[in-house]
TrEMBL record:
The entry's keywords: Iron, Metal-binding, Oxidoreductase
TM region positions: none
Keyword tRNA-binding tagged: no
SUPFAM superfamilies for this protein: Clavaminate synthase-like (SSF51197)
Keyword Metal-binding attributed: yes
Residue ranges of domain Fe2OG dioxygenase in the record: 102-205
Gene Ontology molecular function terms on file: metal ion binding; oxidoreductase activity
Protein name, entry field: Fe2OG dioxygenase domain-containing protein
PANTHER family named among the record's database cross-references: OXOGLUTARATE/IRON-DEPENDENT DIOXYGENASE
Gene3D superfamilies: B-lactam Antibiotic, Isopenicillin N Synthase, Chain (2.60.120.330)
InterPro entries, sorted: IPNS-like_FE2OG_OXY, IPNS-like_sf, Oxoglu/Fe-dep_dioxygenase_dom, Plant_2OG-oxidoreductases
Similarity annotation: Belongs to the iron/ascorbate-dependent oxidoreductase family.
Length: 254
């Protein structure tokens, strides 16, 4: 994607979060079972277009709508390209995963704003989680880091790469690939001095479609590792597990 279009997208996100009319509320609830995250989130359905609720779309800054209408189109091109190559890697029909994201598939845009935090050692910007999506495209802040990935129990900082988008495999791909692909656990740490922004595109299937390992990838040698679950039930699960700080994918592992 051209650096100029990416720059515009980050700029409208920044402008939006500067608006006084936006109610800013940061939560710090320190309980035994429940810990809120140090961030403001704003979700919009962007696809299917018929499900956009334009009354919720900010009218300020004035270019918000226009820019946020074009961005998903470009992200979809990236998604399709990567999904085709992932299917090829698994020796499946190249369109296999692309076809899962049919006309009823849901794409959410999530705008994350992490205010600077007076107690960065006590609260996360976003708790450890894996994305309950097919696929996620993250546009991270171009100057403040904070996103970390877990591998073999160790946390690694995700570097800031100018004008780059981060493509993240979600739980659905882990389940469908019967564990060949991994949906990485990640988190966002807070920063004592600086605020941070990100814009995340979440690709999910039609809520009525079922998630399960691709039959071609399961046999006597490669036993089935995940149960079947309807997309909408999996989404309902996320809200419970995220609040508890556990992983949704663990609920469908066999
Ligand atoms: O803010 C980020 O860099 C990542 C956000 C994220 O992981 C999410 O919204 O699921
Ligand atoms: Fe995430």
């Amino acid at each position: 994607m051209e650096p100029s279009s990416l720059g515009e997208v980050m700029e409208v996100t920044r402008e939006f979060y500067k608006l006084p009319l936006k109610q800013k509320y940061s939560n710090f609830v320190d309980g035994k079972e429940f810990r809120m995250d140090w961030c403001d989130r704003f979700y919009l359905v962007v696809e299917p277009e018929s499900q956009r609720i334009y009354t919720l779309w900010p009218t300020q800054p004035p270019s918000f709508r226009d820019i946020l209408s074009k961005y998903p189109v470009r992200c979809r091109e990236i998604t399709n390209l990567v999904l085709k190559n992932l299917a090829k890697l698994l020796n499946l029909d190249r369109e296999y995963f692309v076809n899962m994201l049919d006309e009823n598939a849901m794409t959410h845009a999530r705008f994350n704003y992490y205010p600077h935090c007076p107690k960065p050692d006590q609260v996360f910007g976003l708790k450890p989680h894996s994305d309950a999506t097919v696929f996620t495209i993250v546009f991270v802040d171009d100057s403040v880091s904070g996103l970390q990935l877990q591998k073999n129990g160790v946390w690694y900082n995700v570097p800031i790469v100018p004008n780059a988008l981060l493509v993240n495999m979600g739980d659905v791909m882990e389940i469908m690939s019967n564990g060949l692909f991994k949906s990485p656990v990640h988190r966002v740490v807070t920063n004592a001095e600086k605020e941070r922004l990100s814009l995340v595109m979440f690709y999910m299937m039609d809520p009525e479609r079922e998630i399960e390992p691709v039959p071609e990838l399961v046999d006597e040698k490669n036993l089935r590792r995940y149960m079947k679950i309807k997309t909408k039930d999996y989404i309902a699960e996320i809200f419970k597990t995220f609040a508890r700080g556990t992983l949704s994918i663990d609920t469908v592992k066999i």
